[in-house]
């Protein structure tokens, strides 16, 4: 592990947040001598962020914990365009009213994780629509356009992915990287912002912003990306069998959120505790060293601490109590029906029939359609879903029937 002088980079490194730095030595020296203002941007495409966004939000929390100033940039302007990074299709166009409502919903998680006040390190939330909507097209072409070449823009993964697959990339989306670069320059001028955070898929966009800010204004700024988070079995972090794991409770009940973390693969517990909680590192080392069934205690700590951060301590305690009543109190033991799966996966309908929760495919489909089937505490909404059985899974019918699916 690289030895850093600044508390900021030491903390980010110890917690597993760093993937790439544009100038590690320069940023380390800057953070060691003064308060660094840093931002991460979030487009308002939904009324809540999801678990896939949480690592970047935690970056802003770590920044403030290390004595620096975070900016949560809401993409009120860029949401109207659509980031092509990692996308196969164009983004649906949203109205001004929907974008404003989405920003209000997204604000909730930042209010829990950051301290917003007037101090030197107090977090602020800004909206890039404040400047992008006022930017004249001719002004953008004349002042910003000369700093970008189409040749280079065509090499970015966000563009190449769509072109290689012969999928449409609109001129609207092609401009997204220019607007994101302009955001960095604008935040540097308005708020003294010197650092942009982002996921590893944003590296090219971040570098664009650094170069534009230096060329137009002579300001030295920096970039840092987080690792692409995947689970130990290679799945993209933040996806459940039923889709996105939303941070806001209106989008996903507290119990289901808690259960998502409780079901973490044994191999991921330590890494997720470092990234997504404030549990001290020495305690994490103890928890991730637990063996056998004892690792379940570490998973419960992970679920409790993440849920407490995002939903509140009361929500975490209630979710754990529900889990204990459902599984421990309900007697999840040898007397429960068990289905052994030999090929690593099974269709949810076949599993419901195999456990005796449905007598036919039609009955199983009606159970799912009525919201009565739950996998590891999460509602099953798709009757074509396939259950991956790499470890023990819990399938329930209603509130009282529970069964175990496990590898043969």
Q: Could you describe the 3D structure shown?
A:
This protein is an alpha/beta fold and 408 residues long. It has helices at 7-14, 24-33, 51-65, 96-113, 129-132, 137-144, 150-153, 157-164, 171-174, 176-191, 203-217, 254-262, 269-276, 281-288, 295-311, 313-328, 348-354, 361-369, and strands at residues 20-21, 37-43, 69-75, 124-127, 193-199, 222-226, 239-240, 243-244, 338-341, 345-347, 373-375, 378-379, 386-388, 393-397, 401-407. It has three domains: 7-226, Rossmann fold (3-Layer(aba) Sandwich), CATH 3.40.50; 253-329, Tyrosyl-Transfer RNA Synthetase; 331-408, Roll (Structural Genomics Hypothetical 15.5 Kd Protein In mrcA-pckA Intergenic Region, Chain A), CATH 3.10.290. It is built from 18 helices and 15 strands. 39% of the residues are buried. Belongs to the class-I aminoacyl-tRNA synthetase family. TyrS type 1 subfamily. A motif ('HIGH' region) lies at residues 44-53.
Describe this structure in a few short sentences.
Helices cover 45% and strands 15% of the residues. The protein has 18 helices and 15 strands. ATP binds at residue 239.
Structural class: alpha/beta
CA-atom Rg in angstroms:
23 Å
Indicate the proportion of strand residues. Answer: 15-25%
Return the CATH class of the largest domain.
Alpha Beta
How many DSSP-defined strands? Answer: 15
Measured between the Cα atoms of the first and last residue, the distance is 40 Å
List low-pLDDT spans.
329-335
Q: What characterizes the major β-sheet?
A: 6 strands, mixed
The percent range for helix content is: 40-55%
Q: Tell me, rounded to a whole number, the average pLDDT.
A: 87
- The CATH superfamily of the largest domain bears the name HUPs
Examine the coordinates and then state which fold CATH places here, giving the name of the CATH topology of the largest domain. Rossmann fold
Number of distinct helices: 18
